[in-house]
Amino acid sequence: MVNPQFIHLKVKRRSNPTAAPYWEEFKVPYQPNMNVVSVLMEIRKNPINAKGEKVDPVVWECNCLEEVCGACTMLINGVPRQSCSALTDKLLEQYGENNVITLEPLTKFPVIRDLMIDRQLMFDNLKKVKAWVPVDGSWAIGRGPRLADKVHQWAYPISRCMTCGCCMEACPNVNSKSKFIGPAAVAQVRLFNAHPIGAMHKDMRLEQLVKKGGIQECGNAQNCKRVCPKNINLTAHLAAMNRQTNGYGFRQFLMGDK
Amino acid sequence: MNREGDRVLSNKNNSNFMIRRLHSLIAVIPVGIFVCVHMLLNSSVFISGNESYLALINFMKTAPFVVILEVVVIAIPIIFHGLYGIYIVYLAKNNALKYTYYRNWAFYLQRITALIVLVFLIWHVWVLRLSTHEPQLVINTLAGLLHNPVTFALYIIGVVASMYHFANGLFTFCITWGICVGDRSQKVFATVAGAFFVLISLFAIAILVKISIMPLA
Ligand code: SF4
Ligand code: SF4
Ligand code: FES
């Protein structure tokens, strides 16, 4: 059982997107069963730093509070994860009661303020790869065929992706020098290409994955799979998409097949 | 807003997809195959040292169009793989100290060994192929290098780095080509690649040691 007096936080802050970052410490009175979001809420109620100075409350984002929206993602003790599901008792157990919990914004996305980042990139990439099943038309096309249970077994977990960006954060090939789309969108292509109606737009999705910044930029470091909070088997999906894009790429190369 | 580079896919079709795939393919065919043949030929020193080695090299030299083969099958693929590879090394922002997973280290080491192998190959090819040519001279030069502890150590480093780059590259090749997809096949093949690295490194070291203890001509 942990029972410290305070939860000691160290937050990497920044007052606007271009301002220089700085560290600020907080000591929040300990209560059992807190999570990082509720600790930040305590700071918002009473924004006094460890030195006793009144400061601007720490800015962060959250919505669902049950690890399904991805909005509250940040680096907690250097690990990209959701702050709503980061239980402080667990953190203190894991890192020791006297450990200072460090909070930093993700580094692969633009910081808006403090721990709040702009994940627009994730959604733009989903749009690029058409990560949906197009059913809107001028007449109803009815229900599509059902997925075989075997396909369903591996496809369903991909749909749990919450575009949180943890995989992008950990990937060495996602950085300012590369245009790599990252593993999350690649996995979504596998999901929607497996769907019987989604498959009608298979090639349009594959075309996006062989463009500049496509799947070829993956270097198999496999960090993405390790950090994904939804346990999505990204490395398997990347390999499967390698197979699909290779087929597509060569078909196109040999026959100019669009 | 300081968007850290615009990583949204571009619409222009100046994709490097085919180049990346070619980069992966030629490393195995023909370069990987060549490396295996190369080592097999070297291992002739185990038969009767200098003599069997010389006999084999002289025989190889009689193959028709050997120079053309050397350029087309060996030199051009290696130079392309090396030059484009430098660019790939540059592209990664390594984080092995932060994410200390085994595969992340393997990824980082693949890039470090890439640079070691590049330097080693330039030296190796210059000393034993371009500046010396005649088989007897080549083996004398090599034996000389391997009798000197410093150059012997450099050779071991260069050769082991090459074998690592080869074995780990075979593993990622299988992912890149969609051969190993599931967890199980990736795990099995990772073990196979690991064993391959150990065996081929020991084989290569044995050849180097054998030459280093052969009497100098
Ligand atoms: S794949 Fe996993 S880590 Fe990546 S965005 Fe989706 S949920 Fe997050
Ligand atoms: S396997 Fe590919 S996508 Fe995943 S972390 Fe490595 S390079 Fe990035
Ligand atoms: S608030 Fe939605 S994942 Fe944490």
- Quickly give the structural class of chain A: alpha+beta
Q: In CATH, what is the class of the largest domain in chain A?
A: Mainly Alpha
Low-confidence stretches of chain B are: 1-8
CATH class of chain B: Mainly Alpha
What composes the largest sheet of chain B?
none
**What's the β-strand tally of chain A?**
7
Rg value of chain A: 21 Å
Please tell me the total number of domains of chain B: 1
Q: Tell me the total number of β-strands of chain B.
A: 0
Q: Taking all residues together, what is the mean pLDDT of chain A?
A: 93
Give me the CATH architecture of the largest domain in chain A, please.
Answer: Orthogonal Bundle
Arrangement of strands in the largest sheet of chain A: 2-1-5-3-4
**What is the string of SSEs of chain A from the N terminus onward?**
EEHEEHEEEHHHHHHH
Your description of this structure?
The complex is a heterodimer of chains A (258) and B (217). By secondary structure, chain A is α+β, with helices and mostly antiparallel strands. Chain A has two domains: 112 residues, Roll (Ubiquitin-like (UB roll)), CATH 3.10.20.30; 136 residues, Alpha-helical ferredoxin (Fumarate Reductase Iron-sulfur Protein, Chain B, domain 2), CATH 1.10.1060.10. Chain A has nine helices and seven strands; from the N terminus they run ββαββαβββααααααα. In chain A, the strands form two sheets. Chain A has a five-stranded mixed β-sheet with strand order 2-1-5-3-4. In chain A, strands 6-7 form a two-stranded antiparallel sheet. The longest helix of chain B is centred in the C-terminal third of the chain and has 31 residues. Chain B has 217 residues and is mainly alpha-helical. Classes of the chains: A alpha+beta (258), B mainly alpha (217). At the A-B interface, helix 3, helix 8 and helix 9 of A face helix 1, helix 3, helix 4 and helix 6 of B. The complex binds iron/sulfur cluster (2 copies) and FE2/S2 (inorganic) cluster. One iron/sulfur cluster (SF4) binds next to helix 5 and helix 6 of chain A. The site of one iron/sulfur cluster has 14 residues of chain A, from helix 5 and helix 6.
